[in-house]
Amino acid sequence: MRKIDNLLFFYELYLEGLDERNLLQWSMVLDVRSEIEKYLKRKKEVPSAARRVINRLDEILKRKLSRAYSYVNFERLREMQFPKPSPELWWYYPEHFSYQNIHLQTV
Predict the structure, then answer these.
(1) HEC states along the chain?
(2) d(CA 38, CA 35)
(3) Is residue 76 within 8 Å of 92, Cβ to Cβ?
(4) Contact between residue 63 and residue 91 where contact means Cβ atoms under 8 Å apart
(5) pTM, to two decimals
(6) Which residues of 9-44 are buried (b: 16+ CB within 10 A; e: fewer)?
(7) How distant, in Å, are the alpha carbons of 15, 64, 88, 93, 104 from that of 74?
(8) How many angstroms separate the Cα of 56 from the Cα of each of 9, 25, 29, 44?
(9) Cis peptide bond prior to 83, omega within 30° of 0
């Protein structure tokens, strides 16, 4: 329980203080989100309050990703990661998210 609280604290801290043009800060935010995902896969019983916080922060992340996609080289960010992030981790692939978002807005 304490680990998820710590991860959520850093996720929110990094997300709120994010300079959207800084690749290193993006890397930190996305790494913390990946650690949260690993935790969620290991522990099936996560408190509903923690899930609500994750959902709220993910919405903020999606908005920031869709804005930052035009001027941040996320392909370079993925190359910096080892091993390369899985396509299941949507936060590393904002180009797909942005296309879906644009498609949804135009429909």
Answers:
(1) CHHHHHHHHHHHHHHHCCCCCCHHHHHHHHHHHHHHHHHHHHCCCCCHHHHHHHHHHHHHHHHHHHHHCCCCCHHHHHHHCCCCCCCCCHHHCHHHHHHHHHHHHHC
(2) 5
(3) no
(4) no
(5) 0.81
(6) eebeebbeebeeeeeeebebbbebbbbbbeeeeeee
(7) 16, 13, 16, 7, 22
(8) 13, 20, 15, 19
(9) yes
Cβ-contact 61, 53 below 8 angstroms? no
AA identity, residue 102:
I
The predicted-structure confidence for 6-51, as pLDDT tens digits, reads as follows 999 999 999 999 988 888 899 999 999 999 999 999 988 889 999 9
